[in-house]
Each structure stands twice: as C-alpha cells, then as structure tokens.
Write the structure tokens for this entry.
Amino acid sequence: MNVLVAEDEPLAAERLTSLLEDCDPSINVAACVDSVEGLTELYSSGKSFDLLLLDIQLADGKSFEAFSKVNINTPIIFTTAYDQYALQAFKHFSVDYLLKPIQKQELSRALQKFNQIAARKPMGGEELTLLKEYLQKNTRSFRERFLIKAGNKLQFRFAQEAAYFFAEGKAAYLVTKKENRKYLIDHTLEELESSLDPIRFFRISRKFIVNIESIAEVKGLISSRLEVKLNQPCEHELSVSRDRAADLKNWLDR
C-alpha cells in the first residue's frame, strides 16, 4: 500500500512514518510533502496513492486549500493538533480524524477502518454514500462517566471531574479535582488512554494520566526528565517518561 504523508514538521513526519511501518510493515510511504503547494503539485503530476495522511496546518496554509485546486480522491486520515476542523474534514473523503500526538493504537484502528472500506469495490456515487454512512456510524466518542463502588452503593463520577488517574499494582484509581479523593475504577490505564478525550487527558507515563485543567506547571529536572505539578495537593511524583516528553510538549502547545 502506497501512502502519502503531508506534514510540515520534520520530526512529526518521521514519527508518523515510523508508526505507520510499525502498524503495517506492508505500508510504503511513497512521498512526504510539507506544504499545500507541494501537495497540489504532486496530484497535478498525475501521481496516485492508496491513502493520504494529511495534517490540516501545513507550512503555507491549511491543507483544505488544496481541494479547490486539484482533484484529491484518495481516502484521507487527517492528523492534526486542531479539533475544530473535524466536520469540515469529513466533507473530503475522510476515513478518520486523529489528534496529535498520534497514538499507535489510534492509528492502527484508523488503518483497520481504511482496510475495511478498501475491501469494497471502487467507489462511485452509491459506494460513496455507503462510505458516508459508515463514517457516521463510526464517529468516535469519548468516555463521559465512571462507575464508583462505595460499600454497597453504586455512584458515578464524570470524566471531567478527574484531576488524574493512576495505576497501583493491578488496580487503577481516579483522583477528583475538587475533593482530591481517590476512587477505585474497573479499568486499566491502557483502556483509559484509548477511551478518554485526548484534548483533555494525556498519559505522561506508564502509571499516570493527567487532566490538562489540573496542570499548574511542568518543570524540567536535572536528569532532563519533566515533572508535572498540579494545582492541587498530590501524593505522587508525576514524572514524565523520556519517550513521552516531546509528545507532552506538543500536546500542551496545541
């Protein structure tokens, strides 16, 4: 499968290429462009691709500008730091809309969705209608509530009430913002990472997921690691793993 990557940040393009190859070794990143001009020139030359991974903000403008200049009929996975363009993106043969920092699990699911669509016959008007129906049914939603066991009572907490989540042994806990109380929840951090809104929550390490609203500052440590400080008391040292530091900075800067 030949893939075109349109991304204006070299490190992000390199990371995305690596993630694609990890998800599916048969993928060939046939070309990379960093601008609307480069994207339009490539399609004007008559080259074709099986899939386009498209960042919305390119070096010389928004990638949507290319659609008015050339005919781009390639299925698209949007990879962007901006959530406000989702509706506009789905007007353009979009398979999925992934928010940066791109997670391997999310990219893998998007590729699976593409493969399901590609297994159909080439798309005309009827097939395009089926694609739109498929995408509408598979628009991603995020977890809103968590069931809490308190003695013989069942309670719940909204996801936005969480200052952070942490793992301890095989158990996972939700710590609230206002009460600063911890509650045992029946989910692993891996499940939480894939089900929580990535605009609001970020997994800083193997043990912690934090809410953007609860972060007071991020400090650099002597060891070149980062430490997250909350705007409330916290019994844990929220150190950021080295492999997540760059992604955390991108997440904070979106």
